[in-house]
Every structure is written in structure tokens, then in C-alpha cells.
Amino acid sequence: PKKHNTQEGRIHRIRPDFKEDPSFKNRLISYNHSAVHIPTDIYDGSTIVLNELNWTEALEDVFKKNREEDPTLLWQVFGSATGLARYYPASPWKDARKTPSKIDLYDVRRRPWYVQGAASPKDMLILVDASGSVSGLTLKLIRTSVSEMLETLSDDDYVNVVNFNTRVNNTACFDHLVQANVRNKKILKDGVQNITAKGITNYTKGFEFAFKQLSDPNVTRANCNKIIMLFTDGGEERAQEIFSRYNPEKKVRIFTFSVGQHNYDTGPIQWMACANKGYFYEIPSIGAIRINTQEYLDVLGRPMVLADAKQVQWTNVYLDALELGLVITGTLPVFNKTSSEDGSRKQLILGVMGVDVSLDDIKRLTPRFTIGPNGYYFAIDPNGYVLLHPNLQPKNPKFQEPVTLDFLDAELENDIKVQIRTMMIDRVPGNKTIDTLVKTQDERYIDRGVRTYTWAPVNGTDYRSAAFSCTLEKFEENGYTFIAPREYCQDLKITSNNTQFLMDFNQYIDKRTPSDPMCKYIQYIILPFNLIIKNVKGVLARFVATDGGITRVYPKSGGEEWTENAETFDSSFYKRSLDNDIYIFTAPYLNSKPPVHMFYLVYSSTRKCVCVCHVDCVILDDGGFLLMSNQEEYITQVRGLTLTPELHSSLSKRICRDAEEDDVVDGKQFFSLFFPLKMTCILYFSLTSIEISFPYLVLLTKYTFVGFFSAYSEEDTSDAYSKESCITEQTQYFFENDNRSFQGVLDCGNCSRMYRAEKLPSTNLVFLITDAKSTCLSCDPKPLKQAEQPSIGPDPCMLAQNPRYRKGPDVCFDNNDDVMLLLFSYEYSFTALMSLYVQSVHLLPWLQHRSSFCCCFSFVFDDGQFHFAFIVDQLV
């Protein structure tokens, strides 16, 4: 009968009329219905699920009303503690057009926004029984259980894993609690896999070690909920003396897990949990791991129920499961406020409400084109992670973990930026103008520029911006013109149909003028300018680019083959020209991009260097790239001389800084995500062994941390739960001082070679000439490459010893004397629940409503958890 009813229910399911919606990146959407997702490991015909489907259906009307009040709302989601997720508007969970064979491993209770919204921060010590009795299948279950437990933690939590028998050992290299970020969790999981079972169980030693580590005042912690998770097969010892000594007030909750199928007495570990405000769970097989390792969140949520917590929490940046891209989510927990027959409150957290805010929408609200090409806006959270930054640009991301890119990793770290980060986290407004190193848009060069940082907490503060404009007198009609695809008029949208767009534009200009407030950017492209046409021998083409997004190329034939980005704010050559008062030459790309080009002029790079055959002649740019040579080999292969470690023999200074870790990138080739991170080692080299002049600054840079989350493709699902790590580093060069020339002799052991280098005036070029001795090959080095290379990266254990400054949430809902110890029950009052829901849902749409913005570009979140700042390009 149950099977028949289930099939009959599926026949009568509603099939909405879906249409593509550009607001959801052309995903199929229906605003007439909400949709429900149920995890694959939960029976969708169970009484609990059917009950939740029934009473959550009333949310659909609330969702629709919210949408009417604020049409900019995106996904509205309720995640239930049972695993059911109801979201609006409705959309097919699997898009058969894109991923027809996608395996559904989604569980709303494992999503970053649910984890952060369901409970306050935690200090968790995971205690693993490593005695001989757990060997075999039980130990395998423990390893998997601990890994799943770590997945329930967020960046606001702190954790460590230790194993014990007659001795206690740290599972990984951490000797104290560490932040539960992606990389630290990966290291702990690897350590758990190396646990071996031997000896006998000694709970007294294990718990004593755990309590001491939880109470260590000398390390950074969450300073909120304190919990110990014990994974064991059972035992006779109760360790009562330890609990009386270290936990007399029951401030530390203890959760115990009996793992495996065995005949051991579980009474003692049940007593441990009940005597310390925890819970006891059984994990007899792998199928029980997932559900039993996440139910503790419901217990930790009870103090929030008693406190009637209504504080909105905002997540880190993460990838939306329904392909909206990178988002942040505002969340509120939903409680059961009904009372039992004896008058006591049930203290149950029913789930979490969430509303997504797309990073693309936030970017569109920032006046990017009014502060100059080298200016930008960024925002950070209390952990120092950016939620808005130009370098937060993942490529093909497909991951479940939050994207935790620290501000100091997104830029080139220095002491002043450390201070800026600290002040922003402490919500102290300010501004600083600094001389800093800047990586170019194409990541090939390093420039030194002056930048003004202005920051303030996002709670109604006004912001300042800077603008750079260009005014010329005459417009030349000859040549080829490119216009950047910007939203010049906010209420005139660009369409793929040019004819329709022109018709719309003709109607539009009858109503608007360029001075209209809705067309504040149009003035930048109507500015007349003059391009003086002169025939210069060797010049293939010349161009003029403007802040307004106009690029003029002459002659027209040059424009027809032009491949540079029409958006000047995204063009390296344009942005570099503002940081340098010289002619900038750029080396040819290895792909089909243009050859050597200079601001205003484009030269052919095929002309040979006028040098005699017994010398090597090369011209390098300030990034160490070859522009011209009388040799056919590449720069690092021109008789092994140019930019080699041997040539940089007078090493004058070495400065190394640690790199932080929390960039999430998938390690498999299918899913790649790259973030530019901070410059890790700074090496000052001189091109001569005789005098310290004209050195290059070599930056062994850009640790790109990859992966640490479930990575699988549609074609390969056998390793769906694997975690992989990949770190790369990059080497870059730039001129450190203004010395014009130098010369010397390079000693190669059995021979020597003379060389001379001359910096070409008013350019970023160096002319280098050396003896071309074909018999002097002992100096041939291993080629230096700028491309990203595999690296072991910084020592994670050392990083954990000196964590970066952060600040946890201002409010903590932890252990409460009024919290009752009762078994979970999902027998709710429908009327009471819906009343609660309506109250909770109405608190959310407003978080991103336009009326909450303090001005046209500064967004305000009620809890003040995010901080907003921007950088203004300082032209000198």
C-alpha cells in the first residue's frame, strides 16, 4: 500500500511551466511555484518528510509576497533539520541540458549557509579511541566518521583531533585547536587516515588531555560552545574523576559515538554523554555515519531557541548549488516555540531560512568606472576573508566549500596592509595612502604604485571616491572604434539583436539626455578626441584608449586584427600606463595575441637585432621577458646567460614571509580554481657580481592553494568523496632601482664571459650584450619559468602557530542551564510552526533591499558583520 501511494503521489505531482530567466543566468524558472529537494539517502515517502512537505507548503505564498515587495530577490530557501529544502522560485534540480548524468549528493544540512546559521561557533576536540579493539572495520568507520564530522564545521569554529590508548597523540601536526578552515580540515583528515590501532583504552588520559587543550588560554579559539566528540567501540571506564575535576559546571558538552558492530558494553559512554549535557549515538555501519555526525547541531541550537535569537548571520562566499555563481547568504534559524503538555518549551531548531545575494549584483552596485582603472572596491568579513575583490575570480569552480581568500592573500602583503586589515576587522574607519607593489591584470608584471585605501564598517557610513577624466578637442573619423560593453544608461539594456537595440536607443534618446542621472557614464564616450595620423616606419598600428571605454585603432586594418580587451578597465597595458611615466613595451604572448606593443604604438617584433655574430644581443622588458634577440632560442636558452641564477650571483637580501592558506580550489583537472596569493619570498638580485647596481626584484610568488573538498566529474564518480591538494608558485621580476648601466665578467669555471647591460631611456627595456662563446657552456642553467609550477607551499604547521588576526561573532549562544536533555521529536503544531515561519521569513528580504543602502554603492547589512572598503588610484 505504501508503495502504491507513493507512486500515485508522483503521478499527481505538479509540473510547472519553466522559462529561462536572465536574473538566474538563464536557468529554467517558475515563479508560480516553489520546489523541494530531498537528499537521496532519505526516503521521500516517510511520515516525517510528508509532514514537512505539507506544512512548509504555506511558505510559497510568503515567498511570492517577498518577491513582490523586492523584485531583486534571488533564491529564498528554507533548509529543514530533517534534510528537506524548499526553495523559491521553482527550478529543476538537475538541468538535463547541461548535466544529464549528474549525481545528486546535495544535503542542505551540509551547506555552508546552513552550518553557520544552525549554531553558534564551536571549540571542538575530537577524541579517537586507537586501542587494539577498534582495529579492522571499526577503525575504518571511525576514520570516515571523523572526516564527516569535520565537514560540519565552518570557519568560525576551532578544532583538533587526537587519538589515545595508553598514550595520547596529536593526530596531525597541530598541538592546539586550529581554525576549521578548508586547509586545516584537510590536514586533520589526512592525519586520521594514519591512525593505527594498538594497546588498551585509557579514557582518563584521553579526556584529561582533551580538557586541557580546550582550556588553553594561550591560543586563539572560538570562545563559545565547547564540545568533546568521543569515537570508540565501548569500554568499562567512566572517567568520573576527570569530569569532576575539569567539568564540574558542565560547561563542556560531551558527545559519544559507539562505532561498529560489537558486543562491548556501551553503558559507560552513554553515561559520559548524559552526565555532561551531550548525546550518545550509535554508528553500526557506513550508512549511519552521515546522519549521526550532524545531529549534534540540533542540540547546540537549543540555546538559540531559548534566547529567541533573531540575529541575521552572513556566510562566507561560496558557490550556489543552483548555478547562480558566487553568493553570500543571510540566514536566520527557525525554532519550534510550542510547549509540551507539562508547560516546558520543546527547544527544537526546525531549520534555517536563507536568502542569497549574488556577488555579481553587489559588483553592479559599485561605481567602478568613477574611481579610475586602477581603483577598486573590496569588502571583508570578521575572518579577514574577502567577499568582494578583483582577485576573487575563480575559473570553472565546482566545489561545496566556502571560498576563503584572505585579504592579505588577495594582494601583495606588507605591514601597512596588515594594519588596514586589523582596523577593518575591529570596525575602525580610516584611510591611508601607501606606496605598494601591484600585479598587473594579466599577472605577468609587477609595478609600484601609489594607492589610497579608505575603509569603514558598513553601517551607514558615507564613502569617498576618485575619478580620472580625459578631455580632448577633436574627433577624427578615420580608423576603427571599439566600445566596452558597459551599462552606460542604467535603464537601457544591451541586447544580442543589434537592430532591436538601435530601435530601442532611438526611442530612448527622445526621452533622455546625456546629462540625465540615469546616463551618468554616457559622457565618457561622447568626449571628442584627436588621433594624429603620422606614418612612422615600422609601426603596424597605433591606438588611443580612454577611461570611457573607447579604443581607437589606426589604420583600420590594424583594428580588424585587434584582440585586446575593449574594456580598458580590464586591460593590463592601459592600467600599467597609469602607474608608469615611461613608454611601456610588452613581450609577445605565446598565443595569438598581438606582438610587442607600446602605448599609442604597435611595432612588429620580427626585425632582427643589429649585432655581429660573435655576441649575443637581447632586449628584455621589466618583467624579464624577451622582446628581441639575435638568437632563435628563448630567453633562458640564449647560451644560458640571460636571467639565470648564476648571472644573479650577488644576492644581496632575502626576505621570506609565510603564506596563508584558505583558497579553495579543486585538485582534479576537471575543476580548476586559481586565486593570486601573496608574494611569499622576496629576493633581491643584482645582474653583476662586482657591484650591487640595477638589480631585479625577484618575487617567488603566488601560492595557489587547490582543493580540499569533494571533487568529482560527471564522467568520474568513483572518487566522489576524495580530497586533493595542489599548490603552485610563480616567479616574477621587476626593476628595483634607477641605475642606468653596468657591466662585468661572469665566471663559469673553466671559462668566462663579459657582458654589459644598458637601460633604455624612458622605457621599461634593458639592452643586454654578452660574449657568444659557444665553448663556454658550463654556465647553462635550468631555465627560469614564470608560469605556475607545482610547489609544496608554506608549512601548514608553522602557519597554525601564528594565525592571522580575526574576530568571532559578537553574540554567543552556548551551554545553558535551562536546556533540557530530551530526545528529538518532529511532532509539531502546524499552526504554531506557520506563525513562527511567517515571522522569520519576513525578516529576510529586506537584508538586501535597496532602501537599506546608505548610498548608491555602499550596502548595509543589519548585523554589521561585513565591512566594506575601496581603493582609489592615486596618480602621481
UniProtKB/TrEMBL annotation:
Record key words, sorted: Calcium, Calcium channel, Calcium transport, Disulfide bond, Glycoprotein, Ion channel, Ion transport, Membrane, Metal-binding, Signal, Transmembrane, Transmembrane helix, Transport, Voltage-gated channel
Molecular function in Gene Ontology: metal ion binding; voltage-gated calcium channel activity
Membrane topology note: Single-pass type I membrane protein
InterPro entries listed in its UniProt record: Ca_channel_alpha-2/delta, VDCC_a2/dsu, VWA_N, VWF_A, vWFA_dom_sf
SUPFAM superfamilies: vWA-like (SSF53300)
Signal sequence extent: none
Intracellular or extracellular location(s): Membrane
Pfam families the record matches: VGCC_alpha2 (PF08473), VWA (PF00092), VWA_N (PF08399)
Record-level GO cellular component terms: L-type voltage-gated calcium channel complex
Domain VWFA: residue ranges: 123-300
Family statement: Belongs to the calcium channel subunit alpha-2/delta family.
Name listed for the protein in its UniProt record: Calcium voltage-gated channel auxiliary subunit alpha2delta 1
Organism: Astyanax mexicanus (Blind cave fish)
